[in-house]
Amino acid sequence: MKEACAERGPEKQLIQLETPGLSLPRERSFRSFQKQENFLGKFNQGGILLLAFFLFMALFPSLLAPYAPDERFIPYEAPSREHILGTNDIGNDILSELVYGARISMTVGFAAALISTLIGTILGLCAGYFRGALDELLMGFTDVVLIIPKIPLIIVLGAFLRPSIWVLIPVLGFMSWESTARVTRSKTLQLREAGYVKSALCMGFSPSHIMVSDIFPNIVHILLPKFMLATASAMISEASLSFLGLSDISMKSWGSMLSFAFFRGGFIREMWWWYLPPGICITLCVMAIALIGFGLETKGEKYAGEGADKA
Amino acid sequence: MKVKTSAVKTLLEVRDLEVSFQGVKTVTALSGVSFSIGESETLALVGETGCGKSVVAHVIMRLLPPESRVKGTVELGGKTLLELSEKEMAKIRGREIAIIFQNPSLALNPVYSIGHQLAEPLRVHRKEGKKEALLKAVSTLKNMGFANVGECINYYPSWCSGGMNQRFLIAASTVLSPLLLIADEPSKGLDRKCVAELEVELKKLKVERKTALLLISHDLGFVRRLADRIAVMYAGEIVEISDSSSLFESPLHPYTRGLLNSLPEKGFIPIPGFSPPLSSPPSGCKFHPRCPFREKRCTEKHPELKEIGRMSVRCFLCP
Is A24 part of any domain? Predict the structure, then answer.
């Protein structure tokens, strides 16, 4: 018996032992696969580096910004040695404004995405696991939320409430969970029939225990990229809403910088150093997040694919 | 090894079980199934694919989908399982009845280590601490004869072979020492060596822990080595129940005889025809279209289960 156990050790060891003896064509195809892998991986690494830079900007703006964001100089100045990106209409240094704006933009993005992913996951898990009437109810509700036009609704809300990011975050979060809920539900429907969920049920575990510790860890690889993409889209929504003037003036995000540049003469005076940098920052940050999201997605697919092979 | 059924206390009593699935056509998966399992006894359910063996296991565990209709009673030590609420049932699952499914590699959660999965039932049901439960899991594995237990604990199911996973699964489902273990085709998809190891494991359970076993299988050789009594099922009914030895030596029902004749060592003679669809079973005895000895009454009247000494059989022709 003991010998038998030792013989059938983990498959990993077996593979390592066998690799040197692989025949040539198989080796070649393996290499090309590896190249492809690196190709995707480089994008992913670039995304991580970019996002790390923006996160650093958001967490420690005082280390990067040359001046405090509310310090005033001569307005409408062109880029110079003191002010690399010039100054705006009330004389604030634009580079400092840009660095401090990262925090607001990214807070809105991540917080809204967190809310939407949380709601989507919980509703999707419940609908998929319990099925029946609860499923119909929750998915009906999801459909209703899905057809609400988001931007017009937020504009209307903005007209009635005082524009602030603490209104914006929940509204963006509560408006963008539907696709997460749908995806979670369909995956839960699939997993609830899986052998390990059935055997967990047969161990006498409660539904909440099964959902949290058996199904959830198996759908994290789908939720993470969803979370990243939700962050990116929340940041874009925030930027467009700020551009329409629905943002807190005391908390300047990249979107509101664009808005100010537009309405306070930046475009007319062709001050590209005012309106271009925030746009580039939004684009790069969203791109970085999306790249990481895509990277996670492909990784998740690979993981799921391996599982399917095992079956 | 032989246990006299009359002497031991009955643990599980199934009476007149009838299960049907409502759909476009109503499919009667089980009709009039009655059997009992004594304490630390092994009963095997054998039969062709689709004769309702697994449905029996699912009824006992209450795992059937909502569109199923169940009649009859299932009693486990005085509790009628079919009347319990879902919460009460959850307490029985794992603690009193455990089940191991076919395809062990899929029955273990791919994201947790073996140790975690062995400790989980202890932590949930007995509210034990993480370390305590893990230590118990280690000792269970040691009892099963794993040499490198320290490593095994950290393995993931995808690293291990089907046979290893099967034994991990048995360890996980018996860690709470249930009274009854249901094994739903445990030997399916395993090679000879793994089946032999599985047999050793199940025998150990029987002898050391006095666990009663409901063995569902169509591997007759495997069943013969393990079971005390055997129930043969055909088209949703039990057609014969008897002691393991007498069933193999002197089978009564024509279907049982046919089954034994189709074994390789008995000449590989298949039973002619196909088993009937459960949505439209034939009139009279359900086996009559394939039975070589059929008479006129077989096509008209449905035979009842008759007791002949210590055996029961559902056939007009058996005295």
Answer: no
Task: With CB atoms and an 8 Å threshold, state whether B90 touches A12.
Answer: no
In angstroms, what separates the C-alpha of B65 from chain A's closest C-alpha?
A: 11
Q: For residue A31, is pLDDT > 60? A: no
In a domain, B138, yes or no: no
Mean pLDDT of B242-268: 89
Domain with B60 in it: 10-96+178-266
Residue to substitute from B89, B105, B109, interface A, most A β-carbons within 10 A: B109
Query: Could you tell me if residue A210 is inside a domain?
Result: yes
Q: Which residues of A touch B101 (CB under 8 A)?
A: 195, 198-199
pLDDT tens digit sequence for A246-291: 777 788 899 889 888 888 888 888 888 898 999 999 999 999 998 8
Q: What is the mean pLDDT of residues A168-172?
A: 88
Number of domains in chain A: 1
CATH of the domain at A281: 1.10.3720.10
CB A100 within 8 A of CB A252: yes
Partners of residue A180 on adjacent β-strands: none
- Facing residues of B93 across strands? B97
- Alpha helix ranges (H) inside A60-93: 61-64
Domain CATH code at residue B85? 3.40.50.300
Q: CA of B264, closest CA in chain A: separation in Å?
A: 28
- A305 pLDDT band, cuts 50/70/90, is low
Of B66, B147, B169, the CB nearest to A6: B147
pLDDT tens for each residue of B172-195: 888 888 999 999 888 887 888 888
Output the pLDDT for position A299.
Answer: 73
ipTM of model: 0.81
Residue A249 sits in which domain range?
Answer: 105-310
Where are any strands of DSSP class E within chain B?
10-21, 27-38, 42-47, 68-76, 79-80, 97-100, 180-184, 212-216, 229-234, 237-243, 306-308, 311-313
pTM above 0.90, yes or no: no
